[in-house]
Structures are given as C-alpha cells and as structure tokens.
Design goal:
The chain is mainly alpha-helical. The chain has four domains: about 150 residues, Serine Threonine Protein Phosphatase 5, Tetratricopeptide repeat (Alpha Horseshoe), CATH 1.25.40.10; about 140 residues, Tetratricopeptide repeat domain (Serine Threonine Protein Phosphatase 5, Tetratricopeptide repeat); about 70 residues, Tetratricopeptide repeat domain (Serine Threonine Protein Phosphatase 5, Tetratricopeptide repeat); about 160 residues, Lysozyme. Helix content is about 65%, strand content about 0%. The chain is built from 39 helices and no strands. Helix 13 packs antiparallel against helix 14, helix 15 runs antiparallel to helix 16 and helix 21 runs parallel beside helix 23. The longest helix has 21 residues. The radius of gyration is 32 Å and the shape is flat.
Length: about 725
C-alpha cells in the first residue's frame, strides 16, 4: 500500500492566509484558497472555470489541475476531465486516491465497467481512511453488478469480497414452532396443541405469533388455563401486545374453574400490568392491591401502585405508595428518583421543611449520584423561597467549597448573588454577578448576571473582542493553547487534511468528512486545527459538522480565556445558517428571527436531516403529526419529506412558535417550555407558579429536560441578539 510522500508541489494556500479585514464573513473565507468556489457551488461551471483559469496564485499546481478536472467533469467534457485527473494522480500520491476514484466514476457513467474497476483498483493501492475505502468498495459493487467478465474472482478483489460478504443478507427458511402450531390449529387438533404447549418455552416473535394464532382460532376455549397464561405472558414479554394478552387472560377467567388452575400471583400481576398499559388504571390499582394484600409488599407492586395513582392525577395517594416503597426497601436502586420526585412534590405543596429534609437526604446518602448537585441547589431554593436567605447562603457556600469545579457552579453562584442581594449586601452581590458573566459570557447565568447588574445600575457589557479578521482569531487561539498539549500531525494526518480540503473545494463535503473526522478526535488540544476544520465545513455548506467542531472547540478553550473570544469564533458558535429562510418566515409570522435561530441551534445543531428517538424531524424538530397539522393551517401540501426540507421545517416551526406566543400572551419562557414540554404542561406550570419571580419560575419547571432547554434557548437567543449589534457579525443583516 502506498503511503503519503512529501508534497513537493504547492498544494494549497493555507487556510490561515485567507483575505483579512472584510466585514462579510463568507467573502473573507473563500478567495485565496478556493478560486471559483462560490460559482462552482452555484453550478455556474463556466464562471468557475474562468475564475480558476484566471487565478495566478495556484497556477500549474495539483490543486488547480484537480479542480479543473472536476469542473470539466461537471460540464460533461469527460475527455478533458479524465486527462486532468490522470495528470493529478500521476504527479501526486496524496491526491491520487481521489483522482482515481473520480476517474472510476466517469468510466462507469460512460458504460466502461472494466475501465472503472481498473481505476478503483488503482485508488485502493494508496493509504486512505477506512470509510473512504469502504466508499470505493461500494462503487466496485455497483460496477460488478454490471460486469459480465467474471472479474469478481480477481485476486485484487479479495479485500472487497471480505467487506461484501456481511453486506449481503441471506434468509434461509426455517421451520419454527409457530408453523407447527398453525398446522395443528388448521386441522382442529387442539389436544395436540395443548400438549405441545405443555412441553415448550414460548419466547421471542415466535411465541407472540403462537399467542395470536391461538386467540384467533380457539373460539371454543380449548387450551388449558396454564397454557393460556403462558401465551399471555409471551404476548407481553415478546411483543408488548397488550390487547392479545388481555383477551387471553379473559379466556382464563371465562373458563369454568379456570382461575383455580393457574398461579394466582402470576395471573394477578399480568392482569395489573396489562390493565396499566391499556390505560385502565383503576383496574391496575385493584389488581396490584390484591397482590399486596395476598402476598405482602413487593417493590414493583408498590412502585406501580404509585404510578397508577399518578396517572389518575391522584398525587397525594401516589406519594403514600412512593413513601412506603422507600420505607420498605431503603436500599432499592429506585429510591433516588423516588426521593427526587417527592422533594418536588413537597415543594409544590409548599411543605418546604419536608422538601429540604428530602434533598438533604439525597446529597448526603447518595453523594455520587446524578441528583446530588441539583439537590444542594433545590435545598437552597427552598430556603430562598421562604426568605431564609442566610440559610440558603450557608448551603450554597458549603457546596461551592466542596465542589469548586462543579458543572452547576454558575447556577449556584448566581443564586448566591440573589441571596446576597435579598440581604441588601449589594456590593457583594455585584461582585458575584461580575465573576459569573466575565468567565463564560454566553452561559444562561452569565446573561442573567449581566441583567441583574444592569438593574443595579452597573454597566456590564458582553465581553467581546471585536477585532475583525480571521488572522486575529488564529492569533488568539494560538495564544491560549497550552504548548505542552499540542500534538503534531503525522505525514498521513497531513495528507488526510489536504484531501479534505480538496474535496471541500469541489463540493464533496460528505467525502471530505471521511478524511477529516479522524483529525477531530485525534487532535482535541490542537485548537488551531479544530478552528480550521470548522472553517472547512462552513465553506462546504455543512452547518451541522461546522457547528459540531466549533462547539467542541469551545469546550476545550481554558475557562479563564472564554470571556475574551474574538468575534470570528462567535460566528461559528452562533452561525447565520439558513438566515434568508429564517428572516422571511420570522417577518411573516412576527417572530424575532434570533429566537428562531436560538431554537434551531438547540433542537438540531443545524442538521436538516436529524431525527430524534421519538420521531421529531429536522431543524426545528417537528413531529410528523404536528407537521401535518401545521401544513393544513398554512395551506401547503405535506409529504413525508417536508420536514427534512429547511424551507418547510423553518416555516412550520416559526408558525408554531407564533401560535405558542399567542397562546401565552407573548411570554417567551412559556412558549419555549411549551415547545419542548407541551402546551398542557406549560399551562400547568404557569397555573402553579405564576406568582413566583422570574428566576424561580424557570427553576420550578418540573421537567429537567424542559428546564434545561428553556435556559439554553434563552442563552442562545440573548447571545444572538447581542452579537447582532456588532457590525462584523455575519448575522447582523437580519433586522427585527
């Protein structure tokens, strides 16, 4: 396998030498390194060709030859393209695997399958990332499907054959138990079916199918009670077919003496479980109580009784069973979450003393748990709520002393400032607020600290180095990067970087990522490289990748330096992606465009095709049923692909934000809480806590996910609005 050789020809003008001083970010990014890039991206290949030919900086270099080859390819001039790709491959081993791959593509497009395979074979000789090698294997597979010469057996395809083998799934028909049962049922041989079920263990999809077969065909209830119970259990455990399980359990009850033939505990537990899943919570409670009465306490039974009462909205009854669970099973793994829930419940009931005791139990008894840190804060908030500010300060100071590097240190410090302010210790409060906002200026609590300082008559501006130009960004990155942590790129790493640049320059960002992703993970402390990668993805119109790298980059910036980031870095962290669409839709629906961007930044990290585990799709994470509803409202056609299209997704999401703002009287906090947690829950939180002050209201949003979501989107929103006031910020073209 050929490895990268020393590059003797000028391959590219380094990214750091881009044009300086332009206020327009997009224009400052491209000219020196990517001549004709914008025209190429817009498929104006004639203009791109002219611009590449006129460029004097990279004249007669591999980069120029490679890009000309691509432009001629897109223009349909295959002979010129093939000549130039071959010239590039012959003169440089770094670009060779790219050039040979595109030669193979052209030959395949022209129907010359044997020639395409020869080109792909030539590409595979060189070192390359595994994903790119597999990409070429995929090309080979397509070519072989059209090959009639038997090349599949060629020796050089041995590695390909190993890759291809697991890609082909062979389905071998297997006689399964359900087929046997089905045959017996069709013959009416129920005695044989019952005897067979006595001897087998039902499991998996096959067991579920048997349960359905028997339920459908056994109208005379021929199967024994024990086997009906086994079938019901299979329907529950194998495929969660609650209706089938319920019907089978009914068959047991309907059989004369049927309940006496089955284990009572197992029958009652299945009854309770199925009733709960079918939404029959009163029945579930009845069966769980029978179990508890007949067989004594059981952790699962107590837990499920509490859950059933909660589903009925009977929180007080639910709490009794939760408390009993904690008492009966003091070491149970569920107790942490039960206690956390009970703490919130006591706060809702304004039983503050009981809530404080629960939170203290959590952070003392579970010192390594995920709820420990939050329990300290909730304890302090309980004291704040009843105006015991000294007690709250004591809890917060104790936490800060023990946890100086805590992930919630900004929230704890902010509430310390609030307590000091409530005690009329204004100068001390100002000092605390100033310390928060100067460290990580784009954090939610940093914004709130600046807002508090402003109310106190103290000017606290967002710390922003407004020196324009990317050179300043690189100088700053270099100045704050620890020298001892810098890891140099190897020759192979450098070659991957160059290939990534080449591929971005011809609009092949997905292929570029195959070469660049290793550099993201292998050089986390090389902040200059990470910034260059973000810029490359930005250039390649890959917003999700650009933001991903930028976000990780900021995590690695030393905390003491984050307050001095130059504006060029904020362009990547708070990017103007999809600005034209956002501006148009925001104007149509009277929504602040920066609020829309803030939501997109949090929902999808600017990835138009992202899909959540629950099925939400696209930039603003619209559920399909919500998308259909909105499509009807705005009178547009809806298809399955609508939500991955940025125009439709942003249109639907912006319309929905406006609907929520209308519903909640322009209250942005409630609109965001509703966007994430649902309108019903947002209304419930408002009804419960509408008398609370602003900060407490947000802290008292009951869902952890929604509480965090509201804070993050507000921080995004406030940061976008502050940056928009800077003339060098790319998003400042959008006006409210």
């Amino acid at each position: 396998m050929k490895r990268a050789v020393k590059i003797t020809m000028t391959l590219l003008i380094p990214v750091l030498c881009m044009a300086e001083g332009s206020g327009d970010f997009s224009q400052s990014f491209f000219p020196a390194t990517f001549p004709g890039f914008v025209s190429f991206k817009n498929k104006d290949y004639d203009t791109a060709l002219k611009q590449v030919l006129e460029d004097s900086i990279v004249e007669d270099t591999i980069q120029r030859i490679f890009r000309l080859a691509t432009i001629h390819h897109r223009q349909g001039d295959y002979s010129k393209s093939l000549f130039l790709y071959r010239l590039a491959a012959q003169n440089n081993s770094v670009v060779a695997p790219l050039a040979f791959k595109f030669i193979g593509d052209i030959e395949f497009e022209q129907g010359r399958v044997s020639n395409s395979l020869t080109a792909y074979k030539a590409a595979l000789v060189y070192r390359m990332p595994q994903k790119y090698r597999h990409h070429i294997f995929g090309k080979i597979r397509s070519a072989l499907e059209n090959d009639s010469t038997g090349l599949i057996n060629a020796d050089w395809l041995g590695e390909y054959r190993k890759w291809a083998a697991p890609q082909v799934k062979t389905v071998t028909p297997v006689l399964v138990l359900s087929d046997t049962v089905d045959t017996m049922v069709n013959k009416g041989n129920w005695r044989a079916v019952d005897s067979l079920l006595d001897t087998v263990q039902l499991k998996g999809a096959d067991g579920c199918r048997i349960a359905r077969i028997v339920l459908r065909a056994d109208s005379q209830n021929n199967i024994s009670g024990n086997n009906l119970l086994s079938l019901a259990s299979a329907a529950v455990s194998s495929c969660k077919d609650w209706k089938t399980a319920n019907a089978l359990l009914n068959r047991i009850a309907d059989k004369k003496g049927g309940l006496k033939t089955v284990p009572e505990g197992k029958y009652l537990y299945l009854r309770a479980q199925v009733s709960y899943e079918l939404g029959r919570f009163e029945d579930a409670i009845k069966y769980y109580k029978k179990i508890e009465s007949r067989f004594g306490p059981d952790a699962n039974v107590l837990m499920n009784l509490a859950r059933s009462y909660r589903k009925l909205g009977k929180e007080v009854e639910a709490d009794k069973w939760y408390e009993r669970h904690v008492k009966e099973y003091p070491s149970h793994s569920r107790n942490l979450e039960i206690l956390w829930h009970l703490g919130w419940r006591k706060e809702d009931e304004r039983k503050i003393g009981e809530a404080k005791a629960i939170y203290k139990t959590i952070y003392t008894k579970y010192p390594k748990s995920s709820r420990r840190d939050e329990s300290y804060l909730r304890h302090a908030l309980c004291d704040f709520r009843i105006e015991k500010y000294d007690s709250a300060l004591s809890v917060l100071d104790d936490y800060i002393k023990k946890n100086p590097f805590s992930p919630i240190k900004y929230s704890v410090s902010y509430w310390k400032g609030k307590c000091l302010l409530a005690l009329n210790k204004t100068s001390e409060a100002k000092k605390v607020f100033s310390g928060i906002h100067s460290v990580e200026p784009y954090d939610y609590y940093a914004h709130r600290s600046r807002q508090m300082l402003s109310l106190l008559g103290d000017t606290a501006d967002f710390q922003l180095d407004t020196t324009s130009g990317l050179r300043r960004a690189f100088e700053w990155i270099d100045s704050i990067s620890p020298v001892k942590e810098k890891k140099e790129l190897s020759l192979d790493d450098s070659a991957d970087y160059v290939c990534g640049v080449y591929l971005v320059s011809i609009g092949e960002t997905a292929l570029a990522e195959m070469f660049l992703e290793n550099l993201e993970g292998s050089f986390p402390a090389n902040l200059r490289l990470q910034l260059e990668l973000a810029m490359l993805y930005y250039a390649g119109d890959s917003p999700a990748q650009a933001y991903r790298v930028s976000r990780r980059l900021t995590w690695r910036i030393p905390e003491e330096s984050r307050g001095r980031m130059p504006v060029a870095l904020y362009r990547f962290l708070y990017p103007p992606y999809f600005a034209d669409i956002i501006e148009a839709q925001a104007a149509e629906h009277n929504v602040d465009p920066y609020l829309v961007s803030a939501v997109i930044r949090q929902e999808s990290i600017f990835n138009p095709s992202i899909k959540s585990p629950v099925g939400a799709i696209g930039l603003m994470q619209i559920m399909p049923y919500t998308g259909k509803y909105i499509a009807e409202k705005v009178d547009v056609a809806y298809t399955n692909d609508s939500l991955v299209c940025p125009i439709y997704n942003i249109r639907f999401g912006t319309w929905y934000i406006r609907e929520l703002l209308d519903q909640f009287n322009e209250n942005v906090v409630l609109a965001l809480a509703s966007y994430n947690g649902g309108p019903h829950n947002a209304q419930k939180w408002y009804n419960s806590n509408k008398e609370e002050e602003y900060d407490l209201f947000i802290e008292d949003i009951a869902f952890s996910e929604t509480r965090g979501y509201v804070k993050k989107v507000l921080a995004n929103y406030w940061t976008y609005r502050i940056l928009a006031g800077n003339p060098d910020f790319a998003y400042s073209a959008i006006k409210k």
